[in-house]
Design brief:
Elements (H helix, E strand, L loop, with lengths): L4 H19 L9 E5 L2 E4 L5 E14 L1 E9 L3 E7 L17 E9 L6 E10 L6 E14 L3 E4 L2
Antiparallel strand pairs: 1-3, 2-9, 3-8, 4-7, 5-8, 6-7
Length: 153
């Protein structure tokens, strides 16, 4: 029994389809999330201080970050933004001038007439390895100027 050329093409196509479906596996990508917790600040009394955490979740191979954060400057002013001990991008062996670079670390409570802005940028330097996982990047402290609430975005 002889197989026609057209039948051979269909047979090869069928085998290729079966083989490709066996070799293809489903891949689920994780989503990296940058968050501020809590995401808003409520001031009950003038002079009250509140600290929020800047977090990163499910990141792969993070070596640096740059983030801008805004808030209502009629409600709060930022007083400090710090990388706490053990922060997510802490260099192996602790921080020193040869294993990190602070590209920007600025608090501007009068960014414009309605908002303050925090602009922070940090990077590890070689030979530090990139980091994967989840953790805290910075802690930001605010002081209340008037009673009210502001989103931290």
């Amino acid at each position: 029994m002889e197989i026609s050329a057209l039948s051979k093409v269909w047979l090869i196509a069928l085998i290729a389809c079966i083989a490709s479906s066996v070799m293809i596996s489903q891949v689920n990508a994780q989503t990296t999330i940058v968050s501020i917790l809590p995401s808003s600040v409520t001031i009950d009394e003038v002079g009250q201080t509140v600290t929020v955490d800047l977090n990163i979740t499910d990141v792969t191979n993070l070596y640096a970050y740059e983030i801008k954060i805004w808030y209502l400057n009629s409600i709060v002013n930022a007083t400090q933004a710090v990388r706490p001990s053990g922060h997510f991008l802490e260099p192996i062996g602790g921080e020193n001038e040869t294993n990190k670079f602070i590209a920007k670390w600025e608090i501007k409570n009068d960014y414009n007439t309605t908002h303050g802005r925090i602009w922070i940028a940090f990077t590890l330097l070689a030979p530090q390895p990139a980091k994967s996982g989840s953790g805290i990047l910075a802690k930001i402290t605010f002081i209340g100027l008037s009673v009210g609430q502001t989103p931290i975005i």
